[in-house]
């Protein structure tokens, strides 16, 4: 599913658009952006188009583009994945691809919007986020998502071959 529009004080989560895909492709080609992701090789534009089509049709994923409210600039993407409706659980992820957006609290705000939607609108009870390593500005303390009882798990080191 493509996520609904969710507004925060500084960021807006909205459905990803086809015109966002070249920017996503550029971000995935930047090893500084992807060093903490499990992605090793950047996808092609065609692969990103297929991904967007797959996400739009999925009943077990909800994805958003992250934009700045004041300028509309695209700065990242976030989503809920592998939603197990019966067990009310999902995995979540976030990527701020624009380096200039790092360290301003935008990811924290996007996580709060996404988590509130997951719990209050979708009725999920657990949102797990795999942290591979801590990035500058990434929430690191329990409860920083803004939802009581939500904890950020400790970082897991990524071992490259």
Explained architecture:
By secondary structure, the chain is of the alpha+beta class. Helix content is 25%, strand content 22%. The protein has helices at 21-28, 31-34, 45-57, 106-121, and strands at residues 6-7, 11-14, 62-68, 74-84, 89-96, 126-129. It has a six-stranded mixed beta sheet, covered by helices on one side. A hairpin with a 4-residue loop joins strand 4 (74-84) and strand 5. Helix 1 packs across helix 3. The longest helix has 16 residues, at 106-121. The radius of gyration is 15 Å and the shape is globular. The chain starts with 5 loop residues before the first strand and ends in a 32-residue tail after the last strand. Mean pLDDT is 84; it is low at 138-143 and 152-161.
């Amino acid at each position: 599913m493509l996520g609904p529009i969710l507004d925060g004080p500084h960021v807006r989560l909205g459905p990803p658009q086809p015109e966002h895909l070249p920017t996503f492709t550029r971000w995935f080609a930047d090893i500084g952006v992807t060093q903490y992701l499990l992605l090793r090789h950047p996808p092609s534009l065609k692969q990103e188009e297929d991904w967007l089509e797959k996400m739009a049709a999925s009943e077990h994923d909800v994805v958003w583009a992250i934009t700045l409210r004041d300028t509309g600039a695209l700065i990242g993407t976030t989503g809920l994945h592998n939603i197990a409706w019966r067990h009310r659980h999902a995995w979540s992820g976030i990527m701020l691809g624009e380096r200039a957006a790092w360290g301003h609290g935008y990811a924290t705000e996007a996580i709060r919007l996404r988590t509130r939607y997951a719990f209050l609108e979708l009725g999920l009870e657990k949102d797990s986020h795999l942290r591979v390593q801590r990035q500058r500005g990434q929430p690191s303390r329990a409860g920083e998502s803004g939802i009581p009882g939500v904890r950020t798990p400790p970082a897991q080191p990524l071992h490259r071959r």
